[in-house]
Amino acid sequence: MTEYKEEAALLHEKTSVAPDLRIVLVETSHPGNIGSAARAMKVMGLERLILVRPQRFPDPQATALASGAEDLLERAEIHDDLSTAVADCQRVYGTTARDRHIAWPQLEARPAAAQIVALGAHAPVAILFGNERAGLSNDELDLCQCLIQIPTAEVYRSLNLAQAVQILAYELLLAQRAAVFPSSPGVSEAAAPRAAMEGFYGHLRRVLRQAGFLQAPREAHMMRRLRRLFDRAQPDLNEVYILRGILTEVERWAGQVDKQDEHRL
Fold first, then answer.
1. Span 122-133, average pLDDT
2. Pairing between strand 146-149 and 91-95?
3. Strand, coil or helix: what is 225?
């Protein structure tokens, strides 16, 4: 019996995809897609499902289409805010079927899966799937460092949400079984979590507004470009603290300059 348990544990370890890999469904409108996504995850060894503002959940249709993956639905984490759901992740991938005005780093499903499995072995990773009708918004994509596209025929490129989850889950399982652990170019094991990066971006926005650098109507566009720049750099937590320290000193200096001007008046 002991040998059987050890063998079963070893088999689970070999076939289970990254232990802290999160599948995040954002504003899913149809509960059946949640259930079908849970089933797709379970048959490929994925276990952590996160739902952000689902329109109908829990729901009998989700349970019916889960078909054996009801335990994933029971353990699903529900959040009102996407940034909270991925706050401790070191890398966030967003799925998209269309090109974007501002270029994000982008991979097709297979190379993305190899990179995700490699990183997910030692760091929290999230894959975002957007609303069935509109996909991920630009604000939601701002939380991502890389986009994933699933190759399709040019004639018709629309995939059902659960189909997209199934394809990515399958590619992740293949990457795990093949023990494809590349050096993850551009990915640092010590990269700062998203909560720290979002704190930095908020601080940067405030200082740049005060300096007059960020002005409507191009503020959102410029901040998006700055996000891409710093996301490519992959700063670790100490480096984020340094950057925020610089911003704090700039704010302090600006305050002293303002007081000197007031004194002259």
1. 94
2. parallel
3. helix
CATH number belonging to domain 2-177: 3.40.1280.10
The residues near 84 (Cβ < 8 Å, ≥ 6 apart) are none
For the chain, give every domain's residue range: 2-177, 194-264
DSSP 236: B
Q: Which residues pair with 128 in a beta bridge?
A: 24, 94
pLDDT for position 99: 64
Is the separation of the CB atoms in 192 and 237 below 8 Å?
A: yes
Q: Tell me what percent of the residues of the chain surpass a pLDDT of 90.
A: 70
Q: Which two tokens stand for residue 100?
A: 């974007």
How far is residue 54's CA from residue 51's CA, in Å, rounded to a whole number?
Answer: 6
What CA–CA distance (Å, rounded) separates 227 from 201? Answer: 7
Domain covering 194-264, topology? Helicase, Ruva Protein; domain 3 (1.10.8)
Which residue is associated with the tokens 């025929």? 153
pLDDT > 90? residue 193: yes
Alpha helices in 67-193 (DSSP H): 70-75, 82-85, 109-120, 138-141, 161-177
In the prediction, which pLDDT does 14 show?
46
What is the arithmetic mean of pLDDT over 162-168? 97
